[in-house]
Amino acid sequence: MLLKFANKVSSRLFSTLSILSLLIPKNRKLILFGASLGKYFDGNGSALYQYIIKCHKGEFCCVWLTDSKEVLLLVKNVGGRAYLRKSLTGIWLSLRASLIVTSHQTSDVLLYSPVLKTPKELLLHHGAAMNRGPNQGHLSSGNMVFKNDTEFLKYSKKITYMIATSLWTADRQRMISPVPPSRVKIAGYPRNDFFFQPDEVMINSIKSKYDLDKYTVLYAPSWRKWWPVHYFPFKDLDMEVLSSFLKERRIAIVIRPHPTDLKRQRSNLFWKTLRDFDEVIKIVTRDELPDVQPLLYLSDCLITDYSSIQHDYFLLNRPVIYLPYDIDEYSKKVGGFNMDYDYFAPGPKPKTQAEFLSYLEMFYKKEDPFSVERSKIRDVVHKYKDGQSCRRVYELIKEMTAPV
Model's pTM, two decimal places? Predict the structure, then answer.
């Protein structure tokens, strides 16, 4: 009863804020940033925010809104300003901003839903999914059936512009956020500028903390709504053999679990046994390291399945091993793929541990027969390969905030 009352009060408060946002004058120099539903300081938003406060200091008043006190400290440590979304200052700023910059949806930044596109919204997005997306049917986590997601359709109408890396990724992003093509800007993802201007101090710090001064493999699979990820999904899996192989070659595998999947894995007996092999298998969570880009940059090889993380990695043109162990089931659950999976996953797909180790050995020895295939896909996924995405998005922001 108390929870129902609290929800009703919150709903009325947010409706009031929506109306007030129409009445309160906007400061065109005030831009609010947020990401991952207010939980993290990461991704495209973090990269763009740091670029603007560093390279265009004083041009705009850039503020990060969040629900996390840890994020407040992170933003202040890089020289930025941050407030809690539900604080009085956060609410006041949300009513005064002319533009919000998001990674997933409006609630990355705002507590309320804007009316009449006030303020404007720039959606930086977070990747082109390989599955078809909600407006073509997707899996409801509630009743495990396919249905159209009208919430995404409603949200897409509020987006002023959406960033993509190419026309190809734009088409796939529009399956998730179906904005008109005229409102998609091909500028590249700001987070990928890191590959071209890496923070060597940060890279060396990560290497030292996790003992990665060797051949490093990043293992970053997709999460499943319906069951936990099966890591090292081989019937002939022998952890002692795997561990010995890695030790002999000084190879470290870094597992990067999705936050939702991590919660499921904590009660998994196999997950607990991985701690016994922490000399060669490291687990680096999002809470420990919010941005995955440094891990991608320092990795010599990537292991994934259906994750769009591979698209970022293509810019580095390094080997990728695919473990699509449940591809038939996965395809059914997500309504199919929006591309030819085999063609757009240019790398080996081992089904046994023996095959997996043979491919890993091949890449370890710098033998890479998939390089040309990856380059072809890279050029489809990325129009720009110059490390200037932050600059292009910044120029767009100047256009969006210019006096009428």
Answer: 0.91
